[in-house]
Amino acid sequence: MSLSIVLPPGFGYVAAGLVSTAWVLGWQALVVSSYRSKSGIKYPQLYAEKAEADASKEALLFNCAQRAHQNTIEHMPLIIVTTLATSMKYPVFAGYACGSWALSRVLYTLGYVTGDPVKRNTRGGILGEFLVVGLLLSSTYTAFELLRSSA
Q1: Which PANTHER family match (predicted)?
Q2: What percent of the chain has pLDDT above 90?
Q3: CA nearest to 13, candidates 98, 135, 132
Q4: Angstrom distance (rounded) from CA 49 to CA 88
């Protein structure tokens, strides 16, 4: 028995958007690794302790880089699910929204690693939250439309 899956026209945008998130995660991992080396925080310690971060700018920057990466990982299930659901009806929008979200995570990370966590959202990183809401709403609408059309 064979199964064919027909992808909607424009699905390449979805693939590009999703792949861009993988590149961002890889880049963030390199940023974290760099700050880990500079701070001297050894594995398996996930973060510098408060006393370490208070005593060392490098340890604080490591924590900021680590948190930016972790926050991106925490968002990934939501981004993947809503991008794929939205793509069933609106692949170009889904691809652009996902790719734009990935770009916003670069801005988020660059702001965070200044050592001032407030800057994670003041340098364009907040854009990602609007994109998350857009994908959540569009995926919900897409699911509703698919359910309604199959009834």
Answers
A1: GLUTATHIONE S-TRANSFERASE 3, MITOCHONDRIAL, MICROSOMAL GLUTATHIONE S-TRANSFERASE
A2: 86
A3: 98
A4: 45
Enter the pTM of the model: 0.92
Neighbour tally for 98: CB within 10 Å: 28
Alpha-carbon distance of 151 to 136, in angstroms, equals 23
Number of Cβ atoms within 10 Å of the Cβ of 57:
11
Distances in whole angstroms, Cα of residue 116 to Cα of each of 31, 36, 53, 59, 121: 16, 18, 13, 13, 10
Using CA atoms, how far apart are residues 64 and 34, in angstroms rounded to an integer?
Answer: 12
56 close to 48: Cβ distance less than 8 angstroms: yes
Q: Which domains does the chain have, with CATH numbers?
A: 11-146 (1.20.120.550)
Whether 125 and 68 have beta carbons less than 8 Å apart is answered as no
- Residue among 74, 135, 136, 82 at smallest CA distance from 105: 74
CA 55 – CA 11 distance, rounded (Å) = 49
C-alpha triplet 106, 88, 10: angle, nearest 5°? 70
Reported as type and span, the H/E element at residue 48 is: none
- H/E run at residue 99: helix 91-112
